[in-house]
Amino acid sequence: MDINENITKTLRTIKEGVTLIAVSKTKPIEMLEEAYKSGIRDFGENKVQELCKKYDEFHKDVRWHLLGHLQRNKVKYIVGKVNLIHSVDSIELLREIEKRYKKENLIANILIQINIGRETQKYGVLEENIYDIMEEIKSYNNVKVKGLMAIIPKGNKEENKVYFDKMYNIFRELKTKQFNNVSMDILSMGMTHDYLEAIEAGSNMVRIGEGIFGKRDYSKLS
After folding, report:
1. pTM for this prediction
2. What is the dihedral of CA 142, 186, 174, 191, to 10 degrees?
3. Cα(26)–Cα(106) distance, integer angstroms
4. So what's the pLDDT on residue 54?
């Protein structure tokens, strides 16, 4: 497997203005280094512990993205290390992020994760509760909403399109409104097997792991 070749092929298929995040969870620093040498600067991790370890060991010009579910008691570990938190899914988590970043006088850039498929096993805000988040954040000083993120249910191309289009419509509607501390700039959706459909539907940030690094080896995780 040639990581550089995978990145080159992937970038050829991505429209201008779309950010590629190399999802590096479970992958060793050596593999991240190959991606870095190919020009990748945006890396995504699922777990706080792994992100923090790689943050300490890797290049300091990398932009780290936290993609996985963030527990409130782990927020304190990522302050000042994460460029974008993709997975904010509750008002309680928002409050903890505001508190921790305020303490360090830093700004947290976040995305609101939408559970667009209403799947009980997945995290995310239901679409009818989005405005509760917008109301909550309007008085904050240390958290800025930059857009939305979604992990859609597994399905075929036609089923995927329904969810991607639904997400884009929510994104577009919110973009027309004015909320304090909110700018709808980023729509993060699409992974290795469906990113082209996501981009076609309006995604401007895709998260690709297997398509760059190959399949994950969970046995190497502690």
Report:
1. 0.93
2. -120
3. 28
4. 98
